[in-house]
Specification:
alpha+beta, 16-stranded antiparallel β-barrel
Length: 433
């Protein structure tokens, strides 16, 4: 920074040295010039020394950085660095219904143990405790425990890769399947207090199993993913112990933005199950055979202001078709069933949300001799349900919901009223699209 100053001063020094000797203050001027030259020389020497010191420091810093990169990572001085993130979801409710939940059934269907009617009176819903963390640069781990009716169950316990190439992700352990749209969502993320009829009847609420999942995210300008799963198959709609993978699943999901205010997603999924010994109706009925389930799903989202937290509309629907074949209570049995739900959710204010849903299921069981007098008898009925829900959000961590449903799954129409609170504590990851 001093060299430009020397260049500017040099012409004046030269001019001063050639001034006429007749000047009266010539001797004094020469002394001042000599003194100035000495000061400039000392400044230039300090500059050179500073540059050498800076270069040496830079070299030493580079060498230290190389040594640090080559050395193994040092142990953390804080034990809390190894603690996972902990999240808690508290769920409580009060239910009222015109008929008792005991003996609830859906004509034509053998129901799983979690597909019954909502309970009446005060009670806890499904509360959760989740532990999650990035294990290292390659893996992520998650454990979710579900608490309901004084019982504890492992809802999810899996690892997931985070750094595989080519858009690949592997998940292993116990997890919600990636089929459909709502299957992968935890109950506290639903827009209603209970599950829709097709999922409740055909999947016993949700397909959850122990196995492996592979996903591939395609390098396209829009969202496009492919997935496949192989699972143990001991949970509904499978059952019993299989020598190999009892449940196989595959799915394709695609989506994109329409404009800055709206977007869409659609998908198709297929599940193949094998039931070695599926027990339903409190052990009274058994099924051995195979089943195929296909799901078509579509979702549209619109936020008029571009901010879905203040106002948004979501339209969502899924169609499910299932065929089963095998032996029901020891007799040859073939069945086909289908169902769908359509719902709309409108958040008309930052803290208020209103939702409507219509869903139905229908079974076509061929052999009257097999199904007569059993839970598979359809009575030529289609089970239907209409639901309305109003939700108030205290914040993104708390909500209160009032829900009314008109259900026709038994000979008489049933009225159901439910009040629910859901509180989230601690760490909580973002929900999927």
């Amino acid at each position: 920074m001093y060299r430009p100053a020397l260049a500017l001063v040099a012409p004046f020094l030269s001019l001063a040295l050639n001034m006429p000797a007749a000047a009266q203050d010539n001797a004094a001027l020469r002394q001042e010039i000599d003194l100035l030259k000495q000061q400039l020389q000392r400044m230039e020497q300090r500059l050179n020394g500073a540059e050498q010191t800076a270069a040496s420091a830079q070299s030493q810093a580079a060498q230290a950085q190389q040594r640090a990169a080559a050395a193994p990572p040092a142990a953390s001085s804080s034990a809390s660095a190894f603690n996972p993130a902990i999240g808690v979801v508290l769920d409580g409710r009060f239910g009222a219904a015109s008929r008792t939940p005991a003996g609830a059934r859906v004509p034509g269907f053998a129901l799983g143990d979690e597909a019954g009617a909502p309970r009446r009176g005060f009670g806890l819903g499904e509360s959760e405790v989740t532990f999650s963390a990035n294990v290292d640069q390659w893996l992520y781990g998650n454990l979710t425990l579900a608490f309901e009716d004084d019982a504890v169950a492992v809802e999810e316990a899996y690892f997931q890769t985070t750094a595989l190439p080519y858009g690949l992700t592997v998940k292993g352990g116990r997890f919600f399947s990636g089929i459909g749209y709502i299957n992968e969502q935890h109950a506290h993320a639903w827009d209603f207090s209970d599950q829709n009829l097709p999922y409740r009847v055909l999947l016993n609420q949700q397909l959850n199993n122990d196995g492996l999942q592979l996903r591939y995210l395609a390098p396209t300008p829009f969202f496009l993913e492919f997935g496949g799963e192989a699972a143990r198959g001991n949970t509904f709609p499978g059952g019993g112990e299989s020598k190999t993978a009892g449940t196989l699943a595959a799915f394709v999901h695609a989506g994109d933005d329409i404009n800055e205010n709206s977007s869409w997603r659609a998908g198709v999924s297929h599940v193949r199950t094998k039931a070695e010994d599926r027990v339903t109706n409190d052990g009274a009925d058994t099924f051995r055979g195979r089943g195929n389930l296909t799901i078509l799903d579509a979702v549209y989202k619109w936020a008029p202001t571009g901010n879905p937290a203040s106002q948004h509309l979501k339209l969502q629907g899924e169609y499910l078709f299932r065929d089963e074949g095998g032996q029901f209570n020891g007799l040859d049995y073939q069945s086909a069933a289908q169902g769908f739900y359509l719902q709309g959710v409108y958040q008309f204010a930052p803290k208020w949300q209103f939702a409507l849903r219509y869903d139905q299921v229908q079974a076509n069981n061929d052999d009257a001799a097999v199904v007569a007098g059993s839970v598979l008898e359809t009575f030529n009925e289609t089970a239907r349900r209409g639901t309305a829900a109003l939700t108030f959000f205290t914040s993104e961590f708390g909500r209160f919901r009032a829900q009314y449903a008109l259900e026709q799954t038994r000979p008489e129409t049933e009225h159901q009223l439910l009040f629910q609170y859901t509180i989230t504590l601690g760490a909580h990851g973002a929900h999927a699209y």
